[in-house]
Specification:
Chain lengths: 349, 335
């Protein structure tokens, strides 16, 4: 314990957005220092029952996704915003924490603030905490993702006025109404960027008889994905394995087809927003109606998603600046205040 | 400095007006009313008016201003990046500082107020005082155990020499000799003569001492008081060596717990320890007594039955007092 404190002197305080798709780390006083996919490549010893070792983490591991030989497998240790594989998550965090510390003499032992989904259970939160501690953190704080996202977006969370934030992540989408530094109401659905990719894969297989991988689906989503029909139709050439012929084929997809593919997950997100608005106390709902809703998270980068929410709810919708990093940046701002104001503020656990 | 600030303010105001005029011009160029634009962009009408008049603060925090500007530009087909760049250049795009509930604007964070230097100073003073007290206690301990000679010198200022009242032997002797010439034979004739009294006593006590001599009361009852010093001082004057070697009696009464150490004239430790409240000790030894009391105000002293004035051994600071009792009196008698 004492040794950890000594090592802590040589470590930066970190805010970690441990996401299903990407992990972002904000170092105190430095800003975003790491943005890598939450993917780990694991090598299995050829001997039966032999040890498993980490072959690659992050971007390098993501490049291996779907292209690995028998003794190598790529794992996404986070699922729906929570830990699916405890040991691998711990190793991944350890790798990232070491990566953001240039010093090699001491193993870093930073104070860490991890952003967790509102809808996560106590067991899931504990698992995240234990995992961070196992990765070498000296102290671990947890903060709800929507709170961190709202702070990172620059919303007036301390005012006696309702502010609605919708954080669309890789595994979950969280809708929260915040007032006076606390979450008044939240709605969490396990729909996010991963479900968008899955929907695209299913759509292509069903309508084109072609099987595409997750990286391809993600590329389609990023390049021509749209949440609202527009006159500007975009196209992309995609290659996949034709299911009937068994050989690779290329074909053209357009943005209207992807819009159709994404209807189901998008409806789930819009439904969560509507449900939150229905359940919000009237005074706060009036505040939200006056200024509008703020979208954050990687899902907010989907073209015209703000327009979709606006059309469905009838409220103004704005996308935060650099929505992908809002959660990590918000966590960083809270981390800077923990020393001065104590760890009980902003729903920090 | 102030002039530069004013200039900066003026320039910012000019930039704000310029941006607002650009937005308004863009809308008017396209022949749209504010209401039409509000409907097309999905923005509230008051927000459109505020943006076009440069009253960005009315729209809300920067996150909303930025979002509304994007929607405004998209609805009119204006270059949104250029507009956002101009907005950022105004210096108004910084997010508001985080405040806790009920915390006023610009309040100092916890522990960083104006009282902080004073707190440090107070802590330093307390530490220094604690160190000094600790040094004093260690010195006392060393002095008590007699292991260090240096402590005696360091505590020299604390030591108090006993100056008892009515202790002026030479004039008393001469006065007594002049006023009552019969006294010396009476006193010297008394067979059970009490041990020489180095300390002057009250007249009644002296009278009691002289009672064994019936001649004294019969011969001069009116001169009893005058006889007293003469009687008391005669043995001392006649035999100073005997007075110095005589045994003295010291009584200590403790009204509260206190440690005490008493040494007699020969350096022998007569008492050393902590005594409880209500306890008392009677010590006999060769004067002078070297006394050290841990809680001097809680101790009452009597030397050969006569109470010692508390002012004599009242500590100058703290509660510890060191003094010598009876030594100079004995010496004075001898002189």
């Amino acid at each position: 314990m004492v040794f950890r404190r000594v090592r802590g002197l040589f470590s930066n305080d970190l805010s970690i957005d441990l996401g299903t798709a990407n992990t972002l780390i904000y170092a105190r006083g430095q800003g975003i220092v790491l943005n890598e996919p939450s993917v780990v490549a694991i090598q299995q010893d050829p001997n039966r029952g032999g040890p498993r070792t980490i072959a690659a983490v992050g971007m390098e591991a993501k490049r291996m996704l779907g292209r690995t030989p028998g003794n190598l497998s790529t794992i996404r240790p986070m699922k729906d915003g929570v830990i699916a594989d405890f040991t691998v998550t711990e190793k991944m965090l350890q790798h990232f924490i070491r990566k953001v510390h240039a010093r090699k003499f001491f193993n870093p032992s930073p104070r860490v603030l991890v952003c967790v989904p509102c809808g996560s259970t106590q067991v899931e939160r504990r698992a995240i905490k234990e995992s961070a501690l196992g990765a070498g953190a000296r102290e671990v704080y947890l903060i709800p993702e929507p709170m961190a996202a709202a702070i990172g977006a620059g919303m007036p969370v301390d005012e006696a006025r309702g502010s609605m934030v919708v954080d669309i992540g890789g595994g979950t989408s969280e809708v929260a109404v915040i007032s006076l530094n606390g979450i008044v109401y939240f709605e969490s659905v396990r729909i996010g960027g991963d479900r968008f990719d899955e929907a695209i894969i299913n759509y292509v297989r069903r309508n084109f008889g072609v099987l595409i991988g997750e990286p391809t689906a993600e590329r389609i989503k990023q390049e021509i994905g749209s949440a609202f029909p527009t006159s500007d139709v975009r196209e992309i050439e995609v290659k996949g394995r034709n299911l009937s012929e068994g050989v690779p084929r290329s074909f053209i997809l357009n943005s209207n087809e992807i819009l159709e593919a994404l209807q189901e997950p998008l409806a789930g997100i819009v439904g969560a927003v509507k449900k939150a608005l229905e359940s919000t106390p009237p005074e706060l709902a009036a505040d939200v109606a006056e200024r509008g809703i703020v979208l954050t998270g990687g899902g907010a980068l989907l073209r015209d998603i703000d327009r979709l929410v606006m059309e469905e709810t009838g409220l103004s919708v704005v996308i935060a600046e650099d929505p992908l990093t809002c959660v990590a940046r918000g966590g960083g701002r809270v981390l800077e205040l923990i020393d001065e104001r104590g760890a009980t503020t902003f729903s920090v656990e | 400095m102030k002039k530069a600030d004013t200039q900066q303010q003026g320039r910012t105001q000019q930039d704000v007006s310029s941006l607002a005029a650009y937005l308004l011009g863009g809308r008017e160029e396209r022949g749209l009313s504010a209401a039409d634009l509000a409907q097309r962009a999905g923005l509230p009408l008051p927000a459109i008016t505020a943006l076009e008049n440069g009253r960005f603060a009315e729209v809300g925090p920067p996150v909303f201003v930025r979002g509304y500007l994007i929607r405004y530009c998209r609805a009119l087909g204006l270059a949104e990046e250029a507009v956002l760049e101009r907005y950022r250049a105004l210096g108004l795009a910084e997010p508001p500082p985080l405040r806790l509930r009920g915390e006023p604007d610009g309040s100092a964070p916890r522990g960083q107020g104006v009282l902080r230097p004073f707190t440090y100073l107070l802590v330093l003073v307390l530490l220094a005082y604690g160190g000094w007290r600790g040094f004093e206690l260690v010195s006392t301990y060393l002095a008590g155990s007699g292991t260090s000679g240096t402590t005696t010198t360091s505590d020299a200022g604390v030591r108090q020499e006993l100056a008892l009242p009515n202790a002026a032997p030479p004039p008393a002797t001469s006065a007594a000799a002049g006023s009552a010439p019969v006294a010396p034979p009476l006193a010297s004739a008394a067979p059970p003569a009490p041990p020489p009294e180095p300390v002057a006593r009250a007249a009644t006590a002296e009278a009691a001492t002289l009672q064994p001599s019936p001649a004294a009361s019969a011969a001069a009852p009116s001169a009893t008081a005058a006889v007293t010093p003469s009687v008391a001082n005669t043995p001392a004057a006649s035999a100073p060596a005997a007075a110095a070697d005589a045994e003295a009696r010291l009584e200590l009464e403790f009204t509260a717990a206190s440690w005490a150490e008493v040494r007699d004239g020969g350096g022998r430790i007569l008492l050393n320890g902590t005594l409880r409240a209500g306890s008392a000790r009677t010590l006999t030894g060769k004067a002078p007594f070297k006394i050290a009391l841990g809680n001097a105000q809680a101790v009452r002293l009597k030397l050969d039955g006569a109470p010692v004035d508390t002012a004599v051994y009242a500590p100058k600071r703290g509660t510890v007092s060191r003094f010598t009792l009876g030594a100079d009196q004995a010496a004075g008698s001898g002189d």
